[in-house]
Structure formats: structure tokens, C-alpha cells
Specification:
The protein has about 350 residues and is α/β, with parallel strands linked by helices. The protein contains 11 helices and 10 strands.
Length: about 350
């Protein structure tokens, strides 16, 4: 009998690739969308990813509301909880996203447990396992980040508290439903829709010459295709139950990403900036650029982390990060057209 997987947030970047991979592997997929109007876009994204949508169905459910979740879960064997709502009156407020992310996660888990779902895999973030800046410690899955640490912005604070709440709930009320979390680094790779770029906006900006001078920032890169595979492995691997998995490949500075784009895109990468901005100059500019203040703790820092557990338990094998960022840019140019490149 074909197994059914519910994927939350079907129009999202990561969710889209999870849906494509699941369909290609023979699963029936049900995905949540906030309104029926989103269905055509989701189906088009699946087609761009190279999968048939014959096994795809939709449920109307919103992480910020109770309605629809019981119906969405009915008959599902597994859940990939990928979506995380972004909302709040003031994005500069470090707690602005906490309520929607935490409450939405608990809605999903309650419905999954009530429906007798076999296992839920939740998308968290590598930052949820990051120690204080002063510790010089390698991040692994045994660590929990402090949400009050000033290095974290509103989005990452919401991820920390949502994952904590999820583990607390599943320990106390999870019953026979198993649980695992995947903690990705910066997610790049080919896009399926121009409307849901997320972290891909960094690559989009570079292809368009923004910022004109490259800041000393870096990322642990994970390809969205490898991340989707990691989710499915966490869903099906018996040893993955009750575990957290950091999913990250190589670390690249933005200057490394820019060089890879100029080399990989050739003439189409002519707008990618070449000049770099030293950290001390950027620090001097921070008082005059409020939007850059959240980046202050991250300038010039390469956080150390390990994805050894995901490699060992899940067989996680990330592709080269330079391949990921060039493939990402290629898809952006194909989707948005040369005028924006």
C-alpha cells in the first residue's frame, strides 16, 4: 500500500523540493496551503522539479489557525513539518516570530499525534544548536542555543523556541508518534518558484550587483535537494527516531560565493561584485545603518559545526557548495530572466 506523507507549507522553497523527492520515490503526498488559490502555483513548482503531480493532493490549513489540521492529517503515515510562519508587527522585535512559529508547530504535532501518525520530522535550523560566540565550541546536536543570546535575530529566536516546545510536547504527549528534527544551514540551490526565495535572496542580490561591496559574512551551505533527501531519510531511518540532525555541507564566505558565481556564470555573472568590505569598516557604518545591526555579532566569524551525525546515521552526503550556489543562480536567471540579472 502506498504510504502518505503530509508536507506543511506546500508553496515553500524547502517544502517544494521535499514534495518533488517524495513523489519521485513513490509516496502519495498531501500538502497544506493557506488557500485554494495556491494550488496551481504548487503544482507548477512540482512540474519544474521534474515530478508528476498525479500523487499530490492538497489540504487547506494555516499554521496560525486551528481549522483544517485534523482533516489534513487523516490517513497520513508521516509528516514533514517544513513550514514556519513569519509574522509580527515589528521584525526588529526579537520575539516577533516566536508565537506564530511555536504555536503553529504545536498545532501540527497535536493533530499528528491525534491521527496516529508514525513519525513527524520538523525543519529547525543549525542556529538552534549554536553555542555562545565566546565559547569557541564546535556545534553539535547535543547543544541548545540560548534564545537570549544577542547573536540571534527574530527568525532564529523563533526557531530555537519552536523546536524546544516541540521536543517538550513530544516527550510529554507524543504517545506512539516518533519525532526527529533536521537543522539546516543556509539553504541554497535551484528554485521552483520565484515567489518563495527565502535565503536564496542572497544569491539573487549578488547576481544583480547587491551589495556593491561584499561584507565579511559567511554561511554553512546546504543544497535544498540534499536537505529534502535528509528529511526523507530522517523520516524512514529507524535509528533517526528521537534525534536531531545538523544538515550542512561546506562553509563559504560571501566572497567565495561571489567568486564561484563569476566563474560559473561567465558573462552572465558580470554584475556580481568583486570588492570586499573589511569588518572594521562595516562596524563603523553600523550606527548609521539600523538594518545591519543584527549582523554585527556575525561579522568575520566562521562558526564551527559538524554534520557527522547526519552523515553517519542518515547517509547524508552534501554536494559541493560551489555547485549549489551556481545551480541556484542558474535557476534564478532562468526564472527571472536576464533583465533582472
Amino acid at each position: 500500500m502506498t504510504e502518505t506523507v503530509l508536507v506543511t507549507g506546500g508553496t515553500g522553497f524547502v517544502a517544494g523540493w521535499c514534495i518533488v523527492e517524495l513523489l519521485n520515490r513513490g509516496y502519495a503526498v498531501r500538502t497544506t496551503i493557506r488557500s485554494p488559490a495556491k494550488e496551481l502555483a504548487a503544482r507548477a513548482a512540482v512540474a519544474r522539479g521534474g515530478a508528476s503531480d498525479d500523487g499530490l493532493s492538497f489540504a487547506i490549513a494555516d499554521l496560525t489557525a486551528e481549522d483544517g489540521w485534523d482533516a489534513a492529517m487523516a490517513g497520513c503515515d508521516y509528516v514533514l513539518h517544513v513550514a514556519s510562519p513569519l509574522g509580527g508587527p515589528d521584525p526588529a522585535d526579537r520575539n516577533a516570530y516566536v508565537g506564530p512559529a511555536r504555536d503553529g508547530t504545536l498545532r501540527v504535532l497535536r493533530a499528528a499525534v491525534a491521527a496516529g501518525v508514525r513519525r513527524v520530522v520538523m525543519t529547525s535550523a543549525a542556529a538552534t544548536a549554536r553555542p555562545p560566540l565566546s565559547s569557541d565550541t564546535v556545534s553539535d546536536e547535543t547543544m541548545w542555543a540560548d534564545p537570549d543570546d544577542p547573536q540571534f535575530d527574530a527568525y532564529r529566536v523563533s526557531k530555537i523556541l519552536a523546536e524546544r516546545a516541540a521536543w517538550d510536547f513530544m516527550r510529554q504527549e507524543g504517545g506512539t508518534t516518533e519525532f526527529a528534527t533536521v537543522l539546516p544551514g543556509a539553504v541554497f540551490g535551484p528554485i521552483l518558484a520565484a515567489e518563495t526565495l527565502g535565503s536564496v535572496r542572497i544569491i539573487e542580490g549578488l547576481t544583480q550587483g547587491r551589495p556593491p561591496v561584499i561584507p565579511p559574512l559567511g554561511f554553512w551551505v546546504v543544497d535544498v535537494r540534499d536537505l529534502a533527501d535528509a528529511h526523507i531519510r530522517a523520516m524512514t531511518t529507524p535509528e533517526a527516531a528521537g534525534e536531531r540532525f545538523i544538515a550542512a555541507g561546506e562553509f563559504l564566505w560571501m566572497a567565495d560565493i561571489a567568486r564561484a558565481l563569476r566563474s560559473g556564470l561567465g558573462a552572465r555573472g558580470r554584475k556580481v561584485p568583486t570588492r570586499t568590505l573589511p569588518a572594521f569598516i562595516l562596524q563603523l557604518l553600523l550606527p548609521f545603518q539600523p538594518q545591519l545591526k543584527p549582523l554585527a555579532p556575525l561579522l568575520g566569524r566562521q562558526f564551527r559545526l559538524t554534520s557527522e551525525k547526519a552523515r553517519r546515521v542518515l547517509g547524508f552526503t552534501p554536494r559541493p557548495a560551489t555547485t549549489t550556489v551556481v545551480d541556484c543562480a542558474e535557476s534564478l536567471l532562468a526564472t527571472t530572466g536576464p533583465a533582472r540579472a
